[in-house]
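Researcher: Batch entry, complex prediction.
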Amino acid sequence: MTRAFSDLHLRVNPKDAGATQKIVSRAARFGYSQISIPFTSGLSEEESARLKAMCSEAGLDFVARADFSPRSENDLTRFLRKFRRRFEVICITCDSKEVARQAAKDRRVDLLNFPSLDYHKRFFDRAEAELASCGLAALEVDVKSLLILEGPTRVRLLTSLRREVAIAREFKVPVVVSSGVSEERFMRVPRDLASLAFLFGLDETQALDSTSTIPGSMVLRNREKLSNRFVAPGISLVKEGQPS
Amino acid sequence: MKRVKRRYLALQLECESVPAERKFIDAVWAAVTKLYGEVGASLTGMALIEFNAERRVAVVRVSLATLSMVRASLATITSVEGKVAAVHVLGVSGTLKALYARAE
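Model: Structure tokens for the complex:
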């Protein structure tokens, strides 16, 4: 069975139609089947529809994703209440431990992302993983930093990533590998993207799952939940009865 | 002595201008050395088999034990000869014959 690859983090400005078109065409050429361009400043229905059309024209499935860096727990809760029903994937960039813990606990959060360069703000430790394992959140790793960094900074990043991925595996927290790129030149074919995961301790199958089945099943689960036929996990409306 | 198992990788070079064969393989070696050091690079047993400048396709041979290391290193290449570049793996095979057959 061929894998359907996803890149859920292409950080191009959705308002820049030219750059978006280039990224979308390249993703299609590289063999991705699902991509996501995150919205950071709210959802414009028009933009979302335009991106969806652009992707379907290129043979790609567009996933509506929102990225947010809350300043406090309340800020996070407010954001989730407002946007959860409007996006298929919610990613929280954790800038403080308080936010990281709350995001890991909250079942409305899909992805936990941590700043690549600030090592003091990488809060994915055992406590965080334990909370995430009870919820639905996955750890997202952007490989862009591995491409642009060199020397001691890359060494330090690899050390952090290896530790975090080992903790995530211990607590059975899914790991999603995304590109996190904003320029075409850093885009890689899906198997090359997965091969970078070898650098932080994922074997070939786990790395391929992190770029295909794990993000794919996350999107599927959320689409089911967002569908108006969804009642509860495992229960959906098949047919509406006629009033007697 | 146990026979060393090898793999052949077909690589697609994406860059503004085509570099010389020597510059290309130097960039690949530099990427492997940067990530794994000189000892790690020496374990790969890497050799350039073919470089087609027209099609921007290269074939390299590596030892099977270090295939993942080489693939990861190839993905980190962002420039060749100071120019923006990327190297994508088109295919991996145990024999050159199968690799060429797959490419056709």
